[in-house]
Amino acid sequence: MERITFERIPKGMVESLMKTESYIKETSLEFGLLELIRLRVSQINKCAYCIDMHYKELKQSGETELRLSTLSVWQETPFFTEKEKATLLFAESLTIINQSEITDSMYKSLTSFYDDETICNLILIVAQINSWNRIVRTLKFIPGNYIVQ
Fold first, then answer.
1. The pTM is what?
2. 20 to 30 Å CA-CA from 19: which of 12, 25, 110, 125?
3. Domains in the chain and their CATH numbers?
4. Distance between CA 60 and CA 54 in Å, rounded?
5. Residues 55/147, Cβ–Cβ less than 8 Å
């Protein structure tokens, strides 16, 4: 059972989160990669509601079942591009930063694909989905009801 419904979250808090979402939507990062980041971070954080949401978003956008079902083991598969691998490794490391350092080699691999602005935006994207995961898990939002708009 939900502890606090989405509608009962303070208006200013939701507006701030949605303003960040609007900013993220305007970045140069392609939708599919953005959603892969969100889904992978949500898997790490065991956020069922967000996993349901981002899985459905990816499915609706044409992502393959094979890539969706192997995202949690992406390092062991040939299904992801070098850019996606560098991005996912960064997102995972940033999510579990207390256990995993952002190494110079990891950062250098990002610079092969992204400029400084995009790397800064990646940091924000990972921080934002981590925030959503923590809010949603704490408030116990019920997974399964998300409908792609």
1. 0.95
2. 110
3. 22-139 (1.20.1290.10)
4. 10
5. no
